[in-house]
UniProtKB/TrEMBL annotation:
<dbReference type="InterPro" id="IPR014730">
    <property type="entry name" value="ETF_a/b_N"/>
</dbReference>
<feature type="domain" description="Electron transfer flavoprotein alpha/beta-subunit N-terminal">
    <location>
        <begin position="23"/>
        <end position="211"/>
    </location>
</feature>
<dbReference type="Pfam" id="PF01012">
    <property type="entry name" value="ETF"/>
</dbReference>
<keyword id="KW-0813">Transport</keyword>
<dbReference type="InterPro" id="IPR014729">
    <property type="entry name" value="Rossmann-like_a/b/a_fold"/>
</dbReference>
<dbReference type="InterPro" id="IPR033948">
    <property type="entry name" value="ETF_beta_N"/>
</dbReference>
<protein>
    <recommendedName>
        <fullName>Electron transfer flavoprotein subunit beta</fullName>
    </recommendedName>
</protein>
<keyword id="KW-0249">Electron transport</keyword>
<dbReference type="InterPro" id="IPR012255">
    <property type="entry name" value="ETF_b"/>
</dbReference>
<comment type="similarity">
    <text>Belongs to the ETF beta-subunit/FixA family.</text>
</comment>
Length: 249
């Protein structure tokens, strides 16, 4: 079974994001970039499926500038077999991303597609669902457990009221939640082997996909600075401050 994994290049989660002086976007100059943490979980799940003998090939794909090859090589070092970079340096909507991924899926014909449930830069949580709608595949979002049984896949989903188990017929799409697994680290030998693995580069024009957007970013601002907290010595003092200073009671 071929498994298709989509990954995204984002600002490293340890980096404090800076807004550009003209408020046109986020300043990425000399900023450390990494694989989206939810995408790391997706890659790990695909590798575990291969180790169990369920998956026979893992194809990772990313959309971004040429520098996104770094994240694809990282996925190859973890255990993916080959990679595809859809090279595009501008901003994309979730729908445009889903359309580009569908073009690769139509070519590759995987049985299972795995994505992170969201990217930590935009936090949209849309691409997986849109991709399922475009492909007509069944979907299991917010997956905390995945089990493949022949031509079916059982997905335990994390929902507001607890968990839900859905059964999907392959091909299917799942999006990963935090508790699905703990990603591994790449070993030095595998990092060296990854340099020799196939990494194909295509463009949206070659795929014949329109990425024109009707959305326009007007302004980007940093969150308001939160005031420092204080310590109180007693419940009575806490109640007094909530009543007179915070005006919440």
């Amino acid at each position: 079974m071929k498994v298709f994994v989509a990954i995204k290049r984002v600002v490293d989660h340890n980096v404090k994001v800076r807004v550009k002086a003209d408020h046109s976007g986020v300043d990425l100059l000399n900023v450390k970039m990494s694989m989206n943490p939810f995408c790391e979980i997706a890659v790990e799940e695909a590798i575990r499926l291969k180790e169990k003998g369920v998956a026979t090939e893992i194809v990772v794909v990313s959309i971004g500038p040429s520098t996104a090859q770094e994240q694809l090589r990282a996925a190859l070092a973890l255990g993916a077999d080959r990679a595809v970079l859809i090279e595009f340096a501008g901003e994309l909507t979730s729908l445009a991303t889903a359309r580009l991924l569908k073009a690769i899926i139509d070519k590759e014909q995987p049985k299972l597609v795995i994505l992170g449930k969201q990217a930590i830069d935009s936090d949209n949580n849309q691409t997986g669902q849109m991709l399922a709608a475009l492909t007509g595949y069944g979907q299991g979002t917010f997956a905390s457990k995945v089990k493949v049984n022949g031509e079916n896949i059982s997905v335990t989903r994390e929902i507001d009221s607890g968990t839900q188990i859905v059964s999907l017929k392959l091909p299917a799409i799942i999006t990963t939640d935090l508790r699905l697994n703990e990603p591994r680290y790449a070993t030095l030998p595998n990092i060296m082997k990854a340099k020799k693995k196939l990494l194909e580069t295509v463009t949206p024009d070659v795929l014949g996909i329109s990425i024109a957007s009707t959305n326009k970013t007007i302004k980007v601002e940093a969150p308001a600075v939160r005031s420092a907290g204080i310590k109180v010595k007693s419940v009575a003092e806490l109640v007094e401050k909530l009543k007179n200073e915070a005006k919440v009671i």
